[in-house]
Amino acid sequence: MVSKELRADLQLKWQRIQQAMQMVNADGCLLSVDVNLFYTTGQIFSGYFYLPSQGEPCFFVKRPNGITGSNVEYIRKPEQIPALLAEKGINQPNKLLLEADELSYNDYIRLQQLFNPKETGNATTLMRNVRMVKTPWEISQFRISAKGHAATYAEIPSCYRPGITDLEFQYEIENKMRRQGSIGIFRAFGANMDIHMGSILAGDNAEAPSPFDFALGGQGMDPSCPLGANGTILKEGTSVMVDMAGNYSAYLTDMTRVYAIGKLPELAYKAHQVSLTIQHEIENMARPGTPCADLYNLAFQMAEREGLADYFMGTKQQAKFVGHGIGLQINELPVLTPRSKELLEENMTFALEPKFVIPGTGAVGVENSYLVTNNAVEKLTLFEENIIQL
Amino acid sequence: MVSKELRADLQLKWQRIQQAMQMVNADGCLLSVDVNLFYTTGQIFSGYFYLPSQGEPCFFVKRPNGITGSNVEYIRKPEQIPALLAEKGINQPNKLLLEADELSYNDYIRLQQLFNPKETGNATTLMRNVRMVKTPWEISQFRISAKGHAATYAEIPSCYRPGITDLEFQYEIENKMRRQGSIGIFRAFGANMDIHMGSILAGDNAEAPSPFDFALGGQGMDPSCPLGANGTILKEGTSVMVDMAGNYSAYLTDMTRVYAIGKLPELAYKAHQVSLTIQHEIENMARPGTPCADLYNLAFQMAEREGLADYFMGTKQQAKFVGHGIGLQINELPVLTPRSKELLEENMTFALEPKFVIPGTGAVGVENSYLVTNNAVEKLTLFEENIIQL
């Protein structure tokens, strides 16, 4: 189905999933959600990926026609799977993992009934944990996204014309993104987390609280898409926070930069500098073994010490995290939140986004994507971090 | 929460849902999926909409801050809902409807346990059926989308330069869409149905089968997004089918036009003409009471009679429908498929898309969006339908 290099990486992923399954005494997992299919097979199809806790996986494909490879079986409906597994000498699972946080209730019940296992466990939890530590191929894909992301941001000043709105600015940036190879689709974990290519927040729209679990909100251009730019005119003294997707491969980098229309008030520059200092301190602290909660607490304490706590991660509604895992979805594990019990591990990837919202001006701060190395972190998204005047 | 005009329309929707609930002896429905929230409240928020089978609805909001109105209650978690309903004198439902095809298994189980009804029914089925017949405000929103859709398509020739790829062509069309007011997000019903702003199919990429339940496929630009344009160079003798989203309001129009690079083979023009004739015959046949299956059968028989059955709705994989309902999602009910048991009703809206794929040339045909009137159908998407030479 895939290239030799990717195949080796898929086998590494299968091994990790099998180890995780053995830890919870699961006999097999059946996956069909887009990101889990891509993770385990290198592509998205209509069908199922079945991995027993030992041995080779099977690919049950409904569509498209024409997929070939060992253990690829075409099916019309999932009810055919148990007999096909039996033909291959694979035992029916006593404990089966299904994607309980992603499959619809009806799809889950249908799969549970046809396998009728003694016990069912949550493949969403297991897969989100396994996917937290990235493989070599995945890391190479982040580097592709980071490069495209920085190349696009370098073109942002050319998208500005005096008197335009945040939306008009965004449309031109989206066009630059696509020409740089953005895939367009921007995947997030969780219900209703729809977002179109990213977010641009100008002026007081940065204060508008979000219904979703993103760091900042914005009213959006329509009540059916209540996030991001809302038609604010980019006028003198406004900060424009650009947080557009890094989807130049299937693996998402996350990166925010701030642009200024003319001169901003001193408080905005001060808060931006505090963001950079928080980033610097967290870069120094973060390494394998660092508790994610400590990273949030450090950031919050620094904001508080500077008298900026009321502006930290929003005003009317404040996000209680300063960063999050990245991958096939923009909000993977771990989360840099005070309640996190996770420790950083080598080959985790995360975005760090200390941000402030200054009433009357807009949002300031910085966001970058990082790879946890064997003794530190490596910044993946390399681009000018000061406020850039348009 | 919303304008007076929209409020009257929401009340009409609530009445229709209540009537449908009474038909299945349901006492209440709890909705939280994006399109159902928008349908019933005019906005999307993090939280729940509860409608008893008689009386006023309640709005349980987690986020964002600041929503006001009668029966708006802020909650931290859904477990607070039953007590709040009791305070308002609303009985616990004996039969509760939950979105069984849309909620995750875990979310569904959580809601079911906290209400603990004697019986649970499927709100997805009920809502998809209610949403099938549109209200006056919804119809006004389709007209906005249809206008933006046609205005964008008029700009398509200016997006073409000799020697560009289908993707480069698409990026410029996307930019025109956004400048015309496209909201960007393109919602579909069903798992993994991700699509970025629409599909452009040039040359033999139109033959690539899709993993999804769309009419045609295309390889896509990346295995993580296996649909649509794939980098095919737009060369002489290639047809380019443009099927980009009509998301100029929350209500989606669907519209396809074909552009030609130079001259196409005669078979392509013939098949395109057959598409237009099929459309014409279906327009004449369709009215309240027409079985949707008859519309598919008419289209297929006409394709067969012209000797074009092997090219109808694809080649390597052929879609078994010729149209579908449209609304907040691109694939609403009814479906124009031979297995459909639906009859057209006044104020349904649907897309009709008789298409052919000609090997070596690409896809041809037409797609328009229609409103079912009291005795006929009205075409909403008005724009030149012949093949347009670039």
From TrEMBL, chains A, B:
<dbReference type="GO" id="GO:0004177">
    <property type="term" value="F:aminopeptidase activity"/>
</dbReference>
<protein>
    <submittedName>
        <fullName>Xaa-Pro aminopeptidase</fullName>
    </submittedName>
</protein>
<feature type="domain" description="Creatinase N-terminal">
    <location>
        <begin position="14"/>
        <end position="133"/>
    </location>
</feature>
<dbReference type="InterPro" id="IPR036005">
    <property type="entry name" value="Creatinase/aminopeptidase-like"/>
</dbReference>
<dbReference type="InterPro" id="IPR029149">
    <property type="entry name" value="Creatin/AminoP/Spt16_N"/>
</dbReference>
<dbReference type="InterPro" id="IPR000587">
    <property type="entry name" value="Creatinase_N"/>
</dbReference>
<dbReference type="Pfam" id="PF01321">
    <property type="entry name" value="Creatinase_N"/>
</dbReference>
<keyword id="KW-0645">Protease</keyword>
<keyword id="KW-0378">Hydrolase</keyword>
<dbReference type="InterPro" id="IPR050659">
    <property type="entry name" value="Peptidase_M24B"/>
</dbReference>
<keyword id="KW-0031">Aminopeptidase</keyword>
<dbReference type="Pfam" id="PF00557">
    <property type="entry name" value="Peptidase_M24"/>
</dbReference>
<dbReference type="InterPro" id="IPR000994">
    <property type="entry name" value="Pept_M24"/>
</dbReference>
<feature type="domain" description="Peptidase M24">
    <location>
        <begin position="142"/>
        <end position="374"/>
    </location>
</feature>
